[in-house]
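Justification of computing resources. Each target in the renewal requires a structure prediction run like the one illustrated here; the chain below, 274 residues long, is used simply to show the kind of job we budget for.
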Amino acid sequence: MAHSDVVTAPDPVLDGKLDALRDELRALGRVVVAFSGGADSAFLAAVADATLGSAAVHAVTAVSPSLAGAEREDCRALAAEWGLRWTPVETAEMERAAYRLNDTDRCFHCKAELMDVVAPIAARERATVVLGVNVDDLGDHRPGQRAATAAGAAFPLVAAGFTKDEVRAASHRLGLRTWDKPAMACLASRVPYGTEVTVTVLSRVERAEAALHELGVAQVRVRHYGDTARIEVELADIPRVVDARRDVVAAVRGAGYRYVTLDLEGFRSGNLNA
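Resulting structure tokens:
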């Protein structure tokens, strides 16, 4: 693998969880990793590849309008850098009326579609589908986990006891560049429940967020409310965004929004679940 180990002070707890994760993966034997390129799935894919070898590990990225183009390209780049066996596959959650309806079970229908596409790949390889779910994810409203579990997926990070922070700390120890990658949920998570998910809406959100990234804002969510964009950034970035408000407004309006607002509470992952 292309990454290099980083010399850090011993951490018995983290090292113990890494050993537990490797044991979980060895017990599974062969895995297909649902690989979004985020910190969790990247860490899982990297450890799986190093533990089981590329012949037993297949990283698969679900490609649909809810995956930002930049994220797909980063998956491709990570796979090349790390020597992962990688395949992008098209998923069709947008063809599911229950998904487009966007009620509180939207993620269930998305993960059900993912499993419908990835499970046959795993079956051909006599492998288990594994997802980068960590212990902290269990506390949020995550119907997608229910769909994945029902379809036979495994959550090795949960089994090994990894929290979000521990995934990042362990990634840093292993020299993975994803250790500090900003969280990047699917684009549909920007759309409030009850508002229909369409390709047009997802494209507008993607263009707005990409424009803000171009302005140097790393962690950002553009929540979609019709003609209004509600921007969430880290609290420390709020003064910078306010100072650059003309460029920010121009960037977001350029994506198709009429009104541009900044949420003074700052970035909160999954806050539409509240």
